[in-house]
Amino acid sequence: MFKRIEEKTTSMAQNLLFYISLASYLLLMLLSMLLMGGALSTANGQQMVVDDAGIVEYRAFHLETWIGTEESWILLAFSPLRGLELAAGAVITDDETFAVTEAKYMFRAPSNNRAGFGLVAGALFAPFRGFYSYVPATLPLLDERVVLHGNLGYVFERHLEDHGDHSHTHEDHAFTWGARTDLALAGPVTLLGGLFGQNSETPDFQIGFRLEILLGLLEMDFTYGNNFSRQSSGLGFTAGLAWTPPPFR
Questions:
Q1: Residue 206 lies in a domain
Q2: Environment class of residue 232 by beta-carbon count within 10 Å: exposed (0-12), middle (13-18) or buried (19+)?
Q3: Rounded-to-integer distance, Cα 187 and Cα 210, Å
């Protein structure tokens, strides 16, 4: 839920790399699934800005990666204790690369017609760039065919501004919010749509769909995001994969 880095450009070469990387990763994951004999767990793709309250299963790990026109992520999460998920990864933009660490605790698991909620805290390093924290809540309805998500949080960012002969560090503090709806269609497709923003600024939107490639194991997301005003750039197009192999016992 931290503010995205803006004013980035995307070249044709980067777009080509986007599709090549996506195809290569998908083929690698499918090959891995075949070698594992099709063992299943619970996948949960998450390239949406508005997070859900769920975490990876105890003693399982979860690999998420998504490539976008504005930024790309790779994030590996693991649950060493019941209710706790720890994650680490990298954020890549046209200009910079950041390391990210995150901890997520689920106080109550969501179930049909009963909300679940948790607490997330994370930090960015390039070196230290900022930290964020938010409370995710999830409410499944209609036998989980409709799932509502909400986030409320806070973000601190440190920006290094270069003015030629000298540089200046600028700090930002903001409250963040987000709301999202997941609508399950017939078959393996789920429609996704969300709004998010910070303070009283014009919000962004993000829409797309999730495709379950291998039941409970491998999911793919395609989304598009933008700002309702023309004063800032949005997320653009993003494609991602989420892989969750069986937990260690």
A1: yes
A2: middle
A3: 11
Do the domain assignments include residue 2? no
Please name the residue that has the structure tokens 């910070």. 198
Percent of the chain with pLDDT over 90: 50
Note the pLDDT tens digit of each residue in 173-220: 999 999 999 999 978 999 999 999 999 888 999 999 999 888 778 899
Alpha-carbon distances, residue 77 vs 15, 32, 185, 196 (angstroms): 27, 18, 28, 24
What is the pLDDT at residue 78?
95
Return the exposure string of 163-172: e unless at least 16 CB atoms fall within 10 Å of the residue's CB, then b.
Answer: eeeeeeeeee
- Domain boundaries, position 181: 12-243
Nearest to 5, CA basis, from 155, 120, 149 = 155
Give the chain's mean pLDDT.
82
249 in a structural domain: no
**CATH number of 26's domain:** 2.40.160.40
Structure token digits, residue 206 = 């993000």
Number of domains in the chain: 1
* pLDDT in the model for residue 8: 40
Closest alpha carbon to 108 in 54, 182, 44, 185? 54
pLDDT in tens, 112-146: 999 999 999 999 998 888 999 999 999 999 999 99
Contact 75, 56 (CB under 8 A): no
Is pLDDT at 233 greater than 50 in this prediction?
A: yes
Confirm whether 7 is domain-assigned: no
pTM for the structure as a whole = 0.80
Closest among 81, 153, 73, 80 to 121, alpha carbons compared: 153
Is residue 223 within 8 Å of 235, Cβ to Cβ?
Answer: yes
